[in-house]
Amino acid sequence: MDRVDIDGLQIAFSRSGEGPALVLVHGALSDGRVWQRQVDDLSEEFTVVAWDAPGCGQSADPPESFRMPEYADCLVGLVEALELEKPHVLGHSFGGALVLEAYRRHPTFPATLILAGGYAGWAGSLPADEVSRRLSFAERAADSLSTGGFQPRSMPGLFSATMPVDGARWLETIMADSRPVATRAMAHALAECNLNDMLSGVTVPTLLLYGDADERSGPDIAKALNERIPTSSLSILPGLGHMAYLESPEQFDDAIRHFLRPLLSRRQR
Q1: Are 91 and 98 in contact (CB under 8 A)?
Q2: How many angstroms separate the CA atoms of 164 and 32, rounded?
Q3: Distances (CA, A) of 230 to 151, 167, 199, 200
């Protein structure tokens, strides 16, 4: 992976392929390695950039005070540093809220948004008691990471019945490498985030891509976002859960192509 300095933090990223830029933004307790299949597949048509968020993978730890605005500014800083003009930006789970916050703060930077299993922040998409439960789980997970004892399968709703064995093992390897600082910062950022007030102002084409078996960010959340984002289209992937891009990479990547190809064709006319 390459690295670039963004506001004093070393941010790691991979870059593959040729064509329009597609930036992949992973979720919490994760890093850019989760996108390996998408990088291999979609780099045939796109310049695919997958970052390690601050505190994840090979990127430097942020202060624990980091919240969604700081993550968003860091992401846009990476886009600018790499001179990616009007990229398509895909965020999964935490990454979905992050790209919405990035759009709120820098509305001219993306060509499109793709939210995969995303939220309008936990505070914007979940009941308060569920936000409290998830935040408590994240705090316990961060404590476990300090002693090397975190078990990814303990996260409710993360592993669906369709997750292949090799995908589950790969995800467990990546999540076991998570670090306490980012685990706490990302959880608090997501728990405090409510983006509902900006959704009606989204003007770029937006794809909402959700599995119908997602127990963490299900179709009800997707439909609420679809009602509030005027430029959004909703694609429900049958039989898939929260980690749809690992459970069925072919189905997931086809949905991205189906969304982006007509937009790219119009641009070229």
Answers
A1: yes
A2: 19
A3: 39, 34, 8, 6
- Structurally, what CATH architecture does the domain formed by 2-262 represent? 3-Layer(aba) Sandwich (3.40)
User: How far from 107 is each of 15, 55, 111, 153, 213, CA to CA, in Å?
Assistant: 23, 25, 10, 37, 32
**Structural tokens at position 154:** 């303990």
Q: Is the pTM of this model over 0.85?
A: yes
- 28's tokens: 């919490």
pLDDT in tens, 180-195: 999 999 999 999 999 9
What is each CA distance from 112 to 100, 119, 227, 257, 261, in whole angstroms? 11, 17, 18, 13, 12
Could you tell me which residues come within 8 angstroms of residue 181 by beta carbon, excluding any fewer than 6 positions away? 55, 61, 62, 64
What are the structural domain ranges in the chain?
Answer: 2-262
User: Is the CB of residue 32 less than 8 Å from the CB of residue 11?
Assistant: no
Residues in the chain: 269
Strand order in the sheet with 2-6: 2-6, 9-16, 47-51, 21-25, 88-92, 112-116, 206-211, 232-237
Q: What is the DSSP string of 95-112?
A: HHHHHHHHHHH-TTS-SE
**What phi and psi, each to the nearest 5 degrees, are found at residue 178?**
-60, 155
